[in-house]
């Protein structure tokens, strides 16, 4: 299934990552009410990762950890202050104008609030056609056929839903329209920025199943952003945990979930009701301390040290770097947690897409 005007992918693309971020830095200058410079927000600080064809990389962390800013760096909206973002080997930070637009059509985004991302004045079919019109993908009849095709693909009947406006849809239906718009140009990568967090649990499960089905049918890759580690683990081949602009743990989803090696990852699991970490007091693990520091003045050394129960002098003097502790499982911590040594622990199965090092 190929949209009008789309070229076939070049052979051999699977031999390299679809997307690579290398030492990405994003900073913003903030000003006070009088307009004077108030400081620099260190939103993303030296983040690197790969996404391979057909893979889902989940990024998880608290609000303010830099997840959404990192996603926008990938799309160059705005470009990062430093570092490189390579899509199929081309550095997007060096592209401008039409050259950047030609690459951007292969990367689409699904936002958290579908009603905020859909024009309330437009009808559903026009919303789905919008990217096709923007990229002049075929004539009017071809665009209309493509819009109806992707509406059916996401589980919406074009006849009964195509003429509606967003206010006439449920939250789940509106998000399906947003997904249809995202896949209309048949991209290779979709960035999901908290794409299910505004939906109730039952609709969340349906939308997650839709994402997985589209990945299989269309060969999509995902950058899936959320604050819920259990949710991210369900849909991701690999999980990257982000704290205050830095990656602190990256590994296969099952491994990170069952054998977290960074204290911050363990704290995120402890906060999930119904997981093994929910009995925090009984397990003797102290809760995470205080509030996250300001990204304007992050702590020296390890940025998590001011809240970490294992912090020592070395943590303030030396910044930890990601180092691989197990196959594909890397941690940025001077004193990583030991894996649980329970006799009934299940073995972790690592697929071909989950064993690549970061």
Q: What's the topology here?
A:
Blueprint: E1 19-31, E2 37-51, E3 56-60, H1 67-74, E4 82-87, E5 90-91, H2 97-104, E6 107-110, H3 114-117, H4 124-134, H5 140-153, H6 158-161, H7 171-183, E7 189-193, H8 201-218, E8 221-226, H9 229-235, E9 238-243, E10 246-252, H10 253-258, H11 263-270, H12 280-283, H13 313-317, E11 323-326, E12 329-331
Parallel strand pairs: 3-8, 3-9, 6-7, 7-8
Antiparallel strand pairs: 1-2, 1-4, 4-5, 9-10, 10-12, 11-12
Helix pairs in contact: 4-5, 4-7, 5-7
How is this structure best described in words?
- This protein is of the alpha/beta class and 358 residues long.
- The protein has helices at residues 67-74, 97-104, 114-117, 124-134, 140-153, 158-161, 171-183, 201-218, 229-235, 253-258, 263-270, 280-283, 313-317; strands spanning 19-31, 37-51, 56-60, 82-87, 90-91, 107-110, 189-193, 221-226, 238-243, 246-252, 323-326, 329-331.
- The chain has 2 domains: 16-106 and 188-336, Rossmann fold, CATH 3.40.50.300; 116-186, no CATH class.
Summarize the structure.
The chain has 358 residues and is α/β, with parallel strands linked by helices. The chain is built from 13 helices and 12 strands.
